[in-house]
Predict the structure.
Amino acid sequence: SYEDRLKENFARGSAELEKRRLALEDKQRREVEMREREASEVQGMREDYQRKLVQLVPQQQRLTERLKNMGCNNIPAVAMTSVGGSVAEKGVVCRRLKDQLGALERETTDKLAMMDHYQQDLKHVYLSPTITDLQRDHQHHDVDTKELETLDPLHYSPVDMNGCMLGTPFPVVYD
């Protein structure tokens, strides 16, 4: 009879609704687990970058000190003995010192650039997960709300666009 079919349709629709609800909950659980995994990976990367940065700070200080000393009082013994020597010898020593100073400056510049790179990476590691999580949460909220609206039997009828009860080929007839 009509009432039996209506009850069967309603039961199938309710079962389909429950199935979709469980699938949605499972999907949300997997997404939470994935976010937790990503967060732990980012935390590990952050710790690696911090360790590298801690190693680079003393190295930067040593290079800065070395650069200061090169300009002031770290003159090789050859230069000291050549004070009384010829102008040509002084020129050779001066050129050698300039070359050493240039090499040290390049090395220091490279190390400082490497430190800046690690600091930028740390900023990216700190900020990127927060922004990504906010965007993802916003997107999931929109999707979840739309899915719940289509599944909520108290506020929305479980009828498709053709007037058929969800999960059945029979149209719903209201007397």
